[in-house]
């Protein structure tokens, strides 16, 4: 049983706002973002990139990589200026745009990526320290560093930001020393890497993580004084600043070091810098600043996930905040435990590509969210920062491309994880009070489809769209079941219960609709259920036949049961009305007065439990392809393709008056069956003077389902008779089939050549 949870939105949306006490644009967004961008890749891999592809291709790699990040930054700016962004950063934005399932599917992996990133950065810091202090233990240094940055985050986000100012100063000093440095001495060590040993795209894949990190500022959304202002401008400013620095560094390296030195000495910047150890301080600052950004961002994502009931019930306490700034201290301690466990592993090289994929997946989904919102142009979408939706979708395509370039296996694994979380959340049936873009997407698709549909029936794409008059669906569940078996959840099924005006009110209609829809969902039947009021049952049915539908999308087939004997005349008038309205009619006579049982509340009544594994046969009584025969064969074929009737034999029965007619009739019927490729078995029956009623009973009493054609109400044989003649005909036909298995009367009335549908001519 899936868990149904209702989200009022108050947990996150009603979080106490920080009127004038939050972080500003520079400290809350720009600083953590630029420090994450200017990271280890810049210090330890830029020389390798330049040595592999040369100056101009390096500048092209920087530009392409930054372009994708810049497009993502534009999408972030659009979303941030359209909605009030609370705690949770990227998760909050995505869940409020694409729905809580999509937000959770991205948010849960993103949290773990941020938590493991703390360990990645502190291990990187520890490795550089151990190179200077060879006697120190790497794991111990990493663990102490992890605890230290966590204590900074626990103390206050303000203190952590101030610590990042010191780190920023160290990085700035190292860059200044690089600018005013000198040419590097020739490399004298062992040459392990030769120039141009890696291709352009392989080098781009190595460099691209250097431009990621813009989420560091977005993740602080709950601590910002004005998120709608700070997130767009702080993020874009960090991207622009990083791009400018990344254009300058390769030029400096190109003129001050040869390719062999660039490729084989990861600390080539230390050789060039005016004060060499400043580069070492920069490396340490880069790793520590990234660790601080992750330890501050991850708990805030976790807090938002818990408040939106994404996390399992035992972990909802992680949504608590403390102090005036609502800081997630419990979530920070929880994240510390995960980070320390990852530090204990010691080597996260196998996890690193997958973590990068989660960040890129987040960028991709943010771009999709902004692009879809911009394309739909819903009245509620009014961002103050306007960008054409094409730029956002271009950013999404760029993210996908880079993901596959970096690591195909990691991309697939990340996609599997995200899809798994999405499907799990979908089964939880989480409900929320905020709207998202999905309804707008479906509306746009439906409108586009309706406007492009032709009003002329198309035999090639025909399938039954059923208007089912089931009354109390629990008493006529066999009608609902037959509709599902014929449509396979592909055609449209609309089920109606028509009530008298004097016994109905809006509340009762809503209750009946909710109960019926729950039964349909339990049985996995996709259908619309509605309750309609009318002064007369048949008057209400005729109104629906005449008016129900939208544009060219209208029900083409009416499914009903056998009437009350006292209303047979009015019933046949309704059949005539349907025929004149060009609606096919199929009448199910179940013959056993089936009701919903307690033991099998939604069990098959057309295929009872004792017959589920027994051979089945559908008898189609053939009267020719042009009349009702074409529609009967199509319905039998659709029924056989349903899971309940899989591999059922379709027996095509034709009655001939004598032996002389049997041979030619058999050859014609065999040829027809082969031409139609419908898998039916022809059977020619010699009447030998017997009445058709006797032949019908004798031949089909052991079948599982029978299809019979119904005479057309405008047939000339009824022209000169009284108004009740069609009713007499129907009563006689019904009497002949009372002792047969479930029988379907078929009246093809639609202006469509069903023979063309079968023969594809």
From TrEMBL:
Domain of life: Bacteria
Membrane topology, record value: Multi-pass membrane protein
Cell location: Membrane
Membrane-spanning intervals of the chain: 21-44, 56-81, 102-123, 135-154, 166-186, 198-218, 230-255, 275-298, 330-348, 354-376, 397-425
Gene3D superfamilies: Amino acid/polyamine transporter I
Domain SLC12A transporter C-terminal: 477-589
Keywords, comma-separated and alphabetical: Membrane, Transmembrane, Transmembrane helix
Residue span, Amino acid permease/ SLC12A domain: 29-439
Record flagged with keyword Transmembrane helix: yes
PANTHER family, alphabetized: GH08340P, SOLUTE CARRIER FAMILY 12, CATION COTRANSPORTERS
Protein known as: Na-K-Cl cotransporter
């Amino acid at each position: 049983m899936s868990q149904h949870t209702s989200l009022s939105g108050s947990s996150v949306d009603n979080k106490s706002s920080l009127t004038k006490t939050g972080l500003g644009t520079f400290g809350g967004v720009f600083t953590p973002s630029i420090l994450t961008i200017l990271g280890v890749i810049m210090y330890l891999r830029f020389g390798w990139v330049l040595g592999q592809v040369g100056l101009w291709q390096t500048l092209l790699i920087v530009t392409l990589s930054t372009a994708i990040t810049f497009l993502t930054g534009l999408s972030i700016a659009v979303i941030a200026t359209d909605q009030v962004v609370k705690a949770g950063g990227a998760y909050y934005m995505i869940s409020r745009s694409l729905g809580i399932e999509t937000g959770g599917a991205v948010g849960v992996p993103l949290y773990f990526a941020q938590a493991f990133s703390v360990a990645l950065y502190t291990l990187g810091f520890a490795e550089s320290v151990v190179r200077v202090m060879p006697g120190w233990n790497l794991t111990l240094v990493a663990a102490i560093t992890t605890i230290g940055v966590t204590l900074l985050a626990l103390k206050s986000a303000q203190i952590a930001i101030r610590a990042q100012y010191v780190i920023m100063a160290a990085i700035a000093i190292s860059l200044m020393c690089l600018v005013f440095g000198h040419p590097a001495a020739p490399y004298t060590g062992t040459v392990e890497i030769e120039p141009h040993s890696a291709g352009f795209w392989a080098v781009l894949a190595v460099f691209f993580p250097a431009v990621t990190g813009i989420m560091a500022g977005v993740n602080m959304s709950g601590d910002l004084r004005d998120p709608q202002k700070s997130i767009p401008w702080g993020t874009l400013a960090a991207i622009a600043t990083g791009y400018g620095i990344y254009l300058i560094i390769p030029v400096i390296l190109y003129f001050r070091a040869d390719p062999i030195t660039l490729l084989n000495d990861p600390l080539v910047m230390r050789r060039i810098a005016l004060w060499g150890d400043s580069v070492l301080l920069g490396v340490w600052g880069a790793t520590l600043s990234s660790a601080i950004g992750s330890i501050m961002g991850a708990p805030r994502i976790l807090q938002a996930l818990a408040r939106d009931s994404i996390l399992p019930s035992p972990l909802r306490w992680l949504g608590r905040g403390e102090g005036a700034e609502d800081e997630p201290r419990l979530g920070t301690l929880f994240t510390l435990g995960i980070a320390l466990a990852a530090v204990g592993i010691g080597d996260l090289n196998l996890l690193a590509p997958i973590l990068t994929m989660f960040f890129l997946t987040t960028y991709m989904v943010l771009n999709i969210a902004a692009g879809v919102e911009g394309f739909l142009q819903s009245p509620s979408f009014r961002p103050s920062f306007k960008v054409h939706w094409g730029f956002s979708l271009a950013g999404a395509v760029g993210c996908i491309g880079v993901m596959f370039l970096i690591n195909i296996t990691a991309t697939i694994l990340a996609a599997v994880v995200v899809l798994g979380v999405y499907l799990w959340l979908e089964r939880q049936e989480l409900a929320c009070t905020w709207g998202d873009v999905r309804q707008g997407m479906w509306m746009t698709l439906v409108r586009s489809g309706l406007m492009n549909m032709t009003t002329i029936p198309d035999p090639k794409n025909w399938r039954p769209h059923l208007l089912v008059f089931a009354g109390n669906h629990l008493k006529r569940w066999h009608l609902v079941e037959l509709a599902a078996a014929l449509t396979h959840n592909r055609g449209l099924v609309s089920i109606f219960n028509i009530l008298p005006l004097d016994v109905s009110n809006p509340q009762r209609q809503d209750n009946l609709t909710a109960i019926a829809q729950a039964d349909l969902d339990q049985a996995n039947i996709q259908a619309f259920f509605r309750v309609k009021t009318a002064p007369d049952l048949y008057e209400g049915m005729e109104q629906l036949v005449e008016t129900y539908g939208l544009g060219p999308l209208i029900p083409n087939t009416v499914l009903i049961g056998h009437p009350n004997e006292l209303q047979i005349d009015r019933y046949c008038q309704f059949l005539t009305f349907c025929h004149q309205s060009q609606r096919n009619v199929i009448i199910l006579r179940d013959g056993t007065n089936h009701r919903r049982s307690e033991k099998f509340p939604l069990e098959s009544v057309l295929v009872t439990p004792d017959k589920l594994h027994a051979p089945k046969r559908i008898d189609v009584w053939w009267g020719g392809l042009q009349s009702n025969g074409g529609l009967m064969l199509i319905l039998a074929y659709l029924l056989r393709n349903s899971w309940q009737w899989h591999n059922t034999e379709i027996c095509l029965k034709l009655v001939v008056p004598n032996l002389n007619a049997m041979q030619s009739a058999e050859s014609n019927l065999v040829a027809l069956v082969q031409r139609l490729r419908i898998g039916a078995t022809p059977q020619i029956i010699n009447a030998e003077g017997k009445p058709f009623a006797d032949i019908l009973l004798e031949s089909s009493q052991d079948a599982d389902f029978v299809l019979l054609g119904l005479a057309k109400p405008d047939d000339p044989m009824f022209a000169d008779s009284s108004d009740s003649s069609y009713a007499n005909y129907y009563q006689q036909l019904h009497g002949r089939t009372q002792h047969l298995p479930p029988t379907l009367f078929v009246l093809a009335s639609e202006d469509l050549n069903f023979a063309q549908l079968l023969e594809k001519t």
